[in-house]
Each structure stands twice: as C-alpha cells, then as structure tokens.
C-alpha cells in the first residue's frame, strides 16, 4: 500500500513539479524582462553637461562618449531590477521579490500543514528565469554597445578629420596665429563668448563637431567655413584682440631695426603713409597689404635703437623670432658702428629662428647728402640698378664688412635709399622695401 | 642650458632638451641665448653648434700677440681682408668677445670668438687664445692650430746685427698641431731683404689662398730664421712674416694658411 502510494505520488507529483518548474521559469523570465525594461526607463539622467577641468567652458556632446557610459549604466540597472524583482531575499527597505514572498508562504505552510511543493524546484525555476533575463540583457547590451560605439567612433572620426582638415588647410595657406602684442606664435587663437567665457580650443572635438554649446547656452561655430572667422579672436595668453583677418590671411612680421636715431621711425611713418595707413606713436603697426590673390597681414615693428644696441634687450625681443624679413636702416652720418648692430642682430636671429630671411638695407637721411654724392646720382630708375648703386655707394664708403656680412647671412639682400624730405629728392618709394620683402610689386 | 625669460616668474635655467615648442617648462618664452651650465655666462649658439676650432697665439712678451690679434680682427671685421679673399665676412661672437676685442691689452685668458663666413661655404668658428710662450704643453692637445709669433729682435743673429746682448734661448717645442711660425715686426728688419724677396711683395689677392706665394715666403723666412738662429722649428710648420703696424702688412697670411689646413679655404696652386 505504501509502495503504491509512493508510486502514484511520484507519478502525479513529478509532472506537476516539472510543469510548475517550467511555468515558474517562464513567468519569472517575463517578470524579469518587465522589471528590466522598467529599470531601463527609470534610469536617472546622466550628468554629462558639466564643465571639465582643463577643457573649454562648453558642454560635451552626448554622442562623443557619454552614451557608452549610459549603456553600461542601463545594463547594470536592468540586472539589478530583475534581481530585486525575482530573487532578492527579504529586505527591510526594498520591495519583496516573488521568490521571497513564495518562500515565506512555503515556510508558513511547513508549520501548519504537509509539504506541498518542494522549495528547491521553485528556487531552481526562479534562478533559471533570472539567468535567462541576464542573458537577454547581456545580448541587448552588446547590440546596444556596438551601435553606440559605432556612433561614437563616427562622431569622433568626423571631428578629428575636420580638425585636421582645417589645420592642414591653414598650414598650406601659410596662415599662422601670431600675437603681435606679446610677440609669440600661438597654436590657435582663443575666442571669447558673449558671456565672457574664453574658448581656447574652438575646434571640432568632443565638445562639438560643427558647433559647440557654451556653458551659457550660446552656440559657437567650430570651423572657419562654418562662421568661426566672424567671431572675435584674441590671444589666449595676453587676451589682446587679434585682427579680424588673422585667421584668413598669412601674417608676416617685419622688424625695422637700426641704431639709435638711424631714422627708423621716420622710415616707418613714411612707409605707412605711402601704404595709406595712419601712423600712430606705437612700436607696432599691423596693416593688410596686397590684393585678394596675394594678401598679407603685415606687422611692422619699429624697434627702438636701444633694443638693438643692448644684448640683454635684444635677447628678449621675441619679435625677431617671428621675423619673415627685416629692414635694416643705416644712417650714413651716424657714429655708431652699423656692423656691430648687424652682428648683434645676426647673433640673436641665429639663437631663435636663423637668418634664412630676406634683408632690406635702407640708407636713410640721404637727402642730407650733396646731390653729387647721392647714391642715385646718374642712376637709371630701375630697381635692380638702384639697388646695385646703393650697394656700391656703401662699398665706396668703406662698408664692405656690412655688405659681406649681410650677403653671407641672409637669403636675399636688396639696398634702398629712402628720403623723408619730399619727392624732389631722388630716392626710393618708402613703401618699396616693405613690398619687396613681401614679394609684392612696387606701387 | 637656457634661462627663463623676463615674463617667467621663476627665472631659472633649464636644459635645452627641456624646451617644449620653444617654451620653457613654465610655458613662457625663454631668453634667446644659451648659457654655460657651470658659470651661467652666454654661449653663442654658433660657437656651441658649429665645429669650432681653437687657435693658440703664443709668443714671448712684447712679441706682438695683442697687436697682431687686434690687427687681424680689425682687418677681418672692417672688411679689409675681403679685398684679399672676396666675400669673406667675420663677426665677433658674443658680448664677451666684443668686450675682449675692445680691450685687448687687459691680461686675460678669455678667448676671442670669431665666425668667418664665405659665400657658398660653411661658417668657421675660431676661438683665438692669447698665451705666453711658456704655456702648459697640454694646452696644445686641444688646439687645432698654433700661431707662434717670433720677435726678431730677440733672435741672436738680429741682436748681433743691432749690437744687443744675446738673450737666453727658449725651450724647444714638441707638438703635432700645424704651427704658423710668424716673424712679427717685419718693419724692423725690412732693410735686410733685397727687392727680389717675396717678403717685399704684398699678399696676392684672390678667392683662395695662393700656395706658391706662401711657399716662397716660407722658404725665405725659414732661411732667415736659420741664419738668425734661436728658433727651434717644429714639424708641420709654415713660416710667415708680417708687420702689424701702419695698416698691417701680410697680417692675414698665417690665419688664411690655417684656414686652408681646416679645409675652410681653398688653395690656389698657381701664382695669381
């Protein structure tokens, strides 16, 4: 009898347990998926719009990286939600899981009546359901991460390509960013938002591909072709404003050097006047020269004679390191040794950028010479013939040391005679040395 | 070593290798000139990076070392020598060399750094050391060439001629660097040479050093030194004679010969 009851019991209970196991598994999987989906939708917003130390004051774009962090957070939240809904043991704070509730009811029945269901099979069903949910979450996360990764890669690659394109285009056009105030070459200009925040690195990147959003909410273009050239550029070091054409026109720095009272300022004034630019009592003059095919932003430095005559001043005269050409003003009446001036200049250039630049030697105050002694007396008004005549004049007046030193150090040397006393005195156009150094035709 | 610029708050020195995009470690522009790590004095970049050569100018007291140095640098820097070697230019390297040249009579072991350039040739940097005749022999090991100035009035033969007392003979030399044995004060013994002597004709002009003229002078001066006695001629020497007074006469010949030995100046075999 006992054996029969055991056989019947086994025959009836086993299918019941199996069916119950399957039902529990399917149910728990469905509940887990539901919990996971709700967990996904309940995820708190990722705070990626915060300023990062060392970065510009702009929001980071979501698709450049934060999306991957959110994928990871979603997966973890889904697993936690499924676990707490299905398997978590009774907790005072959190809601009770299905397994915990069933287990508690089973435990009560064990005290009151006979054992109906084996708790182990219920536990196995829930565990299997939880494993199924985790597997599904893992698969969904993998697909999600792959898609998000592709998007992030695409965004970053696009930003990198656009950034390189702009840098290469600027380099090919010979456009550099130089601050004439602090006399330093910059990597790129800084831009001030209307809110006053300075963006030092306004290029395509993880803060924006075509545009970026300043922390104040304003949208700023990151590319020159996208409108960046209309923004107000400034030097990132000294905050002085850069000329509007600094980003679109190659800059050339031309120091006008010479001994004290050699006539540098008079030459600079005459050259600027001839180039239709107002002269101000400043040691730096920035002018835009040339037509649209050959336009140059010229920074003329009217360097005081004391700078050239004192080595300790010369070695901190950073504009020499940027020089793309040089104007050496020679006063034929001066007592100072022009060769020593040139030696100091050459020495400083050799320390910084080398002497591979053209040199325009300008003989000033030639109007004070007797007409018969003028370098251009009886010389045809041809630039080359005049340059040779001026050179010969210096040679005749014992300046072979100056001539040879200039010829041996600089790539090209041309000689000019400039008078500031009007057109009736023979001489070159004051603008011609500047135009020659720039490779522009004389006026 | 380089030193931080005036805009850098620290103002320290740092190795050139620490330079990043032309800035010091504090992101500021450094001073242009390099400095010696030991004494923090400026070292011209051309001297530090070019193949500089040390030339010792030795001689007894009053042999005319300072006068020759002053005259050779004057001729080089004012371009007078460029009439002999077309296109040659020279400049004194560094403020210390310029100060040294301005006061050559001051006793110092400071070298005179000069850079010599010619069209189409690499620059040559020379460090001219003025040393006494009895300088330590180990100094010759670092020298690329020696200009030994011989005062003719100290030689026994000349002193006999002038009726002066003989002097103690100098110790012989033994070193392997090229030595330009140069008789200075040529104007004092000018009348000893007949009109056909190569010493009576000025240095030839030309782009290169004229070897035939140099050999003529060498044989002539060597014969006179042998006759006068008192000079122990070392191996690898070349004899010269010059006068640094009254605008100078054949002043540049020893230096030009040394430049040919360094390969910095071409040699013309024929007579110009």
TrEMBL record, chain A:
Transmembrane segments: 6-37, 126-155
Double-GTPase domain location: 273-421
Superkingdom to which the source organism belongs: Bacteria
Keywords of this entry: Membrane, Transmembrane, Transmembrane helix
Protein name per Swiss-Prot or TrEMBL: GTPase domain-containing protein
């Amino acid at each position: 009898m006992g054996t029969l009851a055991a056989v019947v019991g086994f025959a009836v209970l086993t299918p019941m347990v199996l069916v119950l196991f399957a039902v529990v598994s399917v149910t728990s999987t469905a509940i887990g998926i539901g919990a996971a989906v709700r967990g996904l939708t309940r995820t708190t917003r990722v705070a990626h719009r915060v300023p990062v130390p060392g970065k510009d004051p702009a929001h980071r774009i979501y698709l450049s990286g934060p999306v991957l962090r959110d994928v990871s957070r979603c997966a973890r939240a889904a697993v936690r939600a499924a676990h707490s809904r299905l398997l978590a043991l009774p907790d005072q704070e959190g809601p009770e899981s299905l397994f915990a509730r069933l287990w508690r009811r089973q435990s009560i029945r064990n005290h009151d009546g006979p054992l109906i269901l084996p708790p182990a099979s219920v536990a196995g069903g829930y565990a299997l359901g939880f494993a199924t949910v985790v597997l599904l979450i893992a698969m969904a996360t993998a697909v999600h991460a792959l898609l998000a990764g592709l998007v992030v890669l695409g965004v970053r690659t696009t930003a990198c390509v656009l950034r390189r394109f702009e840098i290469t285009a600027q380099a090919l056009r010979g456009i550099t960013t130089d601050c004439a105030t602090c006399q330093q070459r910059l990597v790129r200009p800084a831009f001030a938002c209307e809110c006053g925040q300075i963006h030092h690195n306004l290029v395509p990147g993880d803060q924006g591909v075509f545009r970026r959003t300043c922390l104040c909410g304003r949208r700023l273009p990151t590319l020159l072709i996208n409108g960046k050239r209309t923004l107000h550029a400034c030097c990132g070091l000294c905050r002085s404003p850069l000329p509007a054409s600094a980003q679109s026109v190659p800059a050339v720095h031309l120091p006008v050097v010479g001994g004290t009272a050699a006539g540098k300022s008079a030459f600079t004034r005459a050259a600027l006047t001839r180039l239709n630019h107002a002269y101000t009592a400043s040691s730096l003059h920035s002018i835009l020269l040339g037509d649209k095919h050959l336009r140059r932003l010229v920074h003329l430095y009217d360097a005081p004679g004391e700078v050239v005559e004192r080595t300790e001043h010369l070695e901190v005269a950073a504009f020499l390191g940027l020089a793309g050409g040089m104007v050496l003003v020679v006063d034929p009446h001066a007592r100072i040794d022009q060769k020593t001036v040139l030696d100091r200049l050459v020495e400083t250039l050799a320390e910084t950028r080398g002497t591979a630049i053209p040199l325009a030697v300008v003989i000033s105050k030639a109007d004070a010479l007797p007409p018969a002694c003028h370098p251009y007396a009886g010389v045809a008004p041809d630039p080359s013939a005049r340059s040779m005549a001026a050179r010969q004049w210096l040679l005749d007046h014992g300046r072979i040391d100056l001539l040879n030193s200039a010829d041996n150090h600089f790539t090209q040397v041309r000689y000019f005679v400039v008078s500031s006393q009007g057109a009736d005195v023979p001489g070159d156009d004051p603008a011609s040395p500047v135009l020659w150094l720039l490779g522009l035709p004389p006026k | 070593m380089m030193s931080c610029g005036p805009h850098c708050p620290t103002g320290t020195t740092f190795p050139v290798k620490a330079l990043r995009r032309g800035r010091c470690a504090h992101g500021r522009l450094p001073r242009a000139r390099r400095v010696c790590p030991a004494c923090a004095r400026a070292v011209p970049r051309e001297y530090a990076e070019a193949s500089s050569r040390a030339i010792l100018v030795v001689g007894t007291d009053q042999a005319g070392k300072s006068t020759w140095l002053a005259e050779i640098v004057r001729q080089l820097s004012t371009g007078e020598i460029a009439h002999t070697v077309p296109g040659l230019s020279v400049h004194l390297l560094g403020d210390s060399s310029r100060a040294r040249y301005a006061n050559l009579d001051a006793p110092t072991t400071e070298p005179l750094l000069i850079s010599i350039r010619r069209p189409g040739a690499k620059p040559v940097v020379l460090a001219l050391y003025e040393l006494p005749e009895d300088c330590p022999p180990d100094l010759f090991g670092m020298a690329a060439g020696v200009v030994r100035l011989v005062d003719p009035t100290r030689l026994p033969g000349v002193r006999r001629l002038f009726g002066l007392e003989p002097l103690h003979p100098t110790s012989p030399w033994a070193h392997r660097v090229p030595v330009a044995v140069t008789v200075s004060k040529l104007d004092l013994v000018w009348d000893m040479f007949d009109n056909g002597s190569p010493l009576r004709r000025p240095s030839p002009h030309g782009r290169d050093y004229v070897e035939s003229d140099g050999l003529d002078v060498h044989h002539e001066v060597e014969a006179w030194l042998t006759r006068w006695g008192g000079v122990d001629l070392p191996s690898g020497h070349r004899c010269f004679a010059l006068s640094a007074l009254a605008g100078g006469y054949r002043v540049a010949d020893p230096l030009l010969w040394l430049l040919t030995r360094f390969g910095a100046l071409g040699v013309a075999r024929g007579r110009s």
